[in-house]
Design brief:
Strand order of the largest sheet: 7-16-15-9-10
Low-confidence stretches: 6-24
Largest sheet: 5 strands, mixed
Distance between the termini: 52 Å
Number of helices: 7
Number of strands: 16
Helix content: 25-40%
Strand content: 25-35%
Structural class: alpha+beta
Length: 271
Amino acid sequence: MNKSHVFLIFSFFVFQFTLTTSFAQDKFTVIKVSGNIVIQSTGSVLNIGTAFSQNEDLLFKNVASRAAVINPQRGRFLLTSDNLSEFKDSKSNFLPSSGKVSARGGGAILNTNDLKNYFEGNYVIFDKIKIKISPAAYPMDEKKYFYIRYSYKNETINKKLVYISDTLIITKNELLTVDGKQIPNPEITEMKLMYMEEGEKYVSTPICVFTPVFPDLDQLKEEVKIIIDQMKNKTYNEKLCETSSYINEFYGKPEENNLKDWLKDNFNLKP
């Protein structure tokens, strides 16, 4: 084999490598779709796991449609009809990691304002949440305890919450069990956190109102798997931050320790 043949073979492999690398950098995978988005060239509908090129022409069947997409090198992007041109033209990375988990912290809660801030907005509940509360602010015993109130089928439901020492525990299955049966596909838009003090009189104090979010955990697992697979060369903290940010955008703010436990149980993801 002469030098010219060697050079041609080498050039071919370099070209193939460059083409493959360029294609990989250009390829995005769908994490989640809300609404209806279609790839114009094929007529295919974007679904979870769909891979497509950044320069594809996409048709948004309604204005509210959006899709979370991710690329191993470029990062994650929330695609809408308003930013499609920006997405197609951009050569820079999207959504650089902030290095901060978008979650509710698990530290001690000192007062009523802390509790309100902790629960405010969309409150994501996986299976079980543990919340440390300052005993000086809210002591918990047989006669002093927290409970959650919500309405179901025009009936007021009061659920006393379990505690261990200074730790309040919210368990999804117990919270959503009414008359011995669990509520299927709960669509409860409002819950109230209450604090009860029993004595000569029963004093019930409203703490805050929040919107509970109970994700379909099988579906969420599929979505998060795509994020983790696409970030396989990233650090634990980067995967945690990205997953937390994604859940915050599409569902609500999760509790940090609850999220860490869920990721460990489902993906063996740990520091």
